[in-house]
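Task card 7
Instruction: Convert sequence to structure tokens.
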Amino acid sequence: MTDPAAALEGVSKRFGATLALDSVDFDVAGGEIHAIIGENGAGKSTLIRILGGFYRPDHGAIRVDGRERRFASPRDAIAAGIVTIPQELRLAPALSIAENIALGDPPLRSLGPLTVVDYPRMRAQARAILAQLDFEPDPERAVGTLGFAERQLVAIARALHRRCRVFILDEPTAALEKREIDRLFAVLARMRAQGTAVVYISHHLDEVVAIADRCTVMRDGTVVAAARRGAFAVTDLVTAMTGGTVAEPASATVVAGAPLFRAAPEVTLRAGDVVGLAGLLGSGAGQMLRKLYGAGGEAVEVEIAGRPRRLAHPSTSVACGLGMVPGERVLGLVMNLSVRDNILLPNLAALTRLGCVDRAAGDRLVAELMETVDIRPRRPWLAVRALSGGNQQKVVLAKWLAHHTAVLLLDEPTQGIDVAAKAQVHALIRAFVARGGGALVHSSDLAELVRLCDRVLAVRQNRITATLERSHGLDEPRLRNAIGG
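Output:
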């Protein structure tokens, strides 16, 4: 019997009082796509960080092709043929595609007594590797000019250049459209056919059912289920992940409330409204949201509670009662600060008395919000970077709920979080508008917009071209047609 390409045997990992992994066994074979799923905090990230050399296990063994290995860093894992491609791609935007692919291992040539980088050979190598991925850009193009899907292919090409045999992909489709997902899946199918081992982390369970040869389900730091292709469906995976079923929030119904926010005749929010922005990649839907927050580089004229306002900077928007949940959580959080400090940052003025912050009042507010939005673990002093993605997203929401925000602008609010955390975030948005707030939501997940929104604005080429109302039959096919998908 052939040894797995990579395996963990009886691996445990503890962070303080938290047991993140408890005697976990896991393996992936060459020519296999093995998915790992679980709720945020289940232990997936810890598992792949151990396999990728970012963490050392407290107990247990790592094996590559049957041989026990010890990794002191990601560099050791790469040398053993294992590479992790995280959600936040680690590329140098100012360097070219070819330079990024060869980074750390460029081809060299002698020039008299000097050794220099062989740029012509580097570009030729880049073209050959990118052709394997059916991607043929100019290798001298700067990576910073590429879209996310193209940058992801550059990251995969760099791993191929390093001759890695085990790829760990963490939420690879979180920021992709359907056609880009299809291209990625075609790339993974070719890699599988060539004998590469792929570890695939995703909260999109339909993708797991479609692409995975094997699926491992984690809960509370342990493996609770495992099955091969054909033996699992989405409902089975949800049950295994949660120990039951996940209730979605009730469908949105339009509440005729007081006017809250108007940026144009098409962009109008009333108390109780959840309005969606939908558009293909490059349509300008996400940029429109940032512009309305005063973060688009130019001032925007709006009405807030019937009063004209000029929003030229996020600080003005916050003072006017707007809160922004950005598409990348790192932009909405200070990762090295505690949960408590992140929640209180926009609220310090309200907690300050005679020049001093009322710490006791701040602690009460944080404790109440952590309970309300279900931030786990209930440790306000814990650094935000130590939380799972879903709990980080709840911290971003909590800080605006503490600020008594009137209008929430949400950019991809459930990107990269699991099915249970997604349902909780939806419920928090619905609860927020039920208390008299309004929410404007941009999402590339059309099913999410259909479930959550009272109406959806279709965006093409930086313009709103259609409005779809729930009362007139809001559904995915009509929405996809409206955005040109």
